[in-house]
Amino acid sequence: MSTVISVRVREDVKKLLEEEGVDIAGEVRRFLEELALKVRLRRYVDKWTRLLGEVVPSEKGFAERSVREDRESH
């Protein structure tokens, strides 16, 4: 599904881009799709940052003890 977005630009800008063979609609579409991707990524990063902020760090020396226990168990 898609929707129409209308953008108003100065006439000289449109004329210059058309003279250079720029696909204006395609460029605008591509820009908006990339912007939407960045917004989605920012939301995911914010969500993960919140989730990781809720994690309680392990106690001091936990990693060292865990490695030692693992090595000694073999």
Compose a concise summary of this entry.
The protein has about 70 residues and is mostly helical. It has helices at about 10-20, 25-55, 60-70.
Task: Describe this structure as you would to a colleague.
- This protein has helices at residues 11-19, 24-53, 62-72.
- The protein has 74 residues and is mainly α.
- It is rod-shaped and about 75 Å long.
- The chain starts with 10 loop residues before the first helix and ends with a helix.
- The mean pLDDT is 94.
Key words describing this protein structure:
74 residues, mainly alpha, 3 helices
Unreliable stretches covering 5 or more consecutive residues: none
Biggest sheet character: none
- How much strand content do the residues show? under 5%
* Helix/strand/pairing category: mainly alpha
Query: How would you state the average pLDDT, rounded?
Result: 94
Helix content: 55-70%
Topology pattern, helix = H, strand = E: HHH
What best-fitting shape do the alpha-carbon axes yield? rod-shaped
Ends apart, CA distance between termini: 59 Å
Number of helices: 3
Number of strands: 0
Radius of gyration: 26 Å
Strand and helix map with partners:
Elements: H1 11-19, H2 24-53, H3 62-72
